[in-house]
Amino acid sequence: MSSEEQQTWQAYIRLRQRLDAALAAGLAGSGLSMADFELMVPLSAAPNGCMRAKELAAEVCWDKARLSKQLSRMVARGLVDRAPAVDDARGIVVSLTERGSVVLRQAAPEHVELVRELFVDKMTRREADAIRSLSDKVAAASEGQTTPST
């Protein structure tokens, strides 16, 4: 990489690490980890708060082992439930519990405010357009590279 490319890459790494750390610290006050939140958000948006584990793993780009370990921790804390799929004995359905829904609803406003404060409010409309465009390009280019093994 050229010096400028290296500086750009390092700037992105710093942004991601520091933003992730700050958001994790913000969620910790609600008793949630970033991993909890990352799984709870798509579950909360899914019909009836349920998704097949395989679909959830694909949604967050996690492999089966990571998802299974995180779900076990969340089940133990009463945030989600796992059950066999009715139509497929090998499939697992993950659902947000009532407690999980309550905890997520309580954590979300503070999390959104922190995202605004640390990220959204720091950029102009033009910068926001550029980030969306770049994100779409990188996500599309990375799609075949990030398929989790499930």
How would you describe this structure to a colleague?
- The structure is a single chain.
- The protein has 150 residues and is an alpha+beta fold.
- The protein has helices at residues 3-28, 34-45, 53-60, 64-76, 98-118, 125-142, and strands at residues 50-52, 80-85, 88-96.
- It has a 3-stranded antiparallel β-sheet.
- The chain is globular and about 55 Å long.
- The chain starts with a helix and ends in an 8-residue tail after the last helix.
- The mean pLDDT is 92.
| Main sheet record | 3 strands, antiparallel
Count of distinct strands: 3
Helix share bin: 55-70%
Amino-to-carboxy terminus distance: 34 Å
- Give the overall average pLDDT: 92
Order of helices and strands: HHEHHEEHH
- Sum up the overall morphology in one term: globular
- Which blocks of ≥5 consecutive residues have pLDDT under 50? none
Secondary-structure content class: alpha+beta
Strand content: 5-15%
Strand order of the largest sheet: 1-3-2
Radius of gyration: 18 Å
How many helical elements? Answer: 6
What attributes does this structure have?
150 residues; 3 strands; globular
Summarize the structure.
With 150 residues, this protein is α+β, with helices and mostly antiparallel strands. The chain is built from 6 helices and 3 strands; from the N terminus they run H-H-E-H-H-E-E-H-H. Strands 1-3-2 form a 3-stranded antiparallel β-sheet.
List strands and helices in order, with pairings.
Elements: H1 3-28, H2 34-45, E1 50-52, H3 53-60, H4 64-76, E2 80-85, E3 88-96, H5 98-118, H6 125-142
Antiparallel strand pairs: 1-3, 2-3
Helix pairs in contact: 1-5
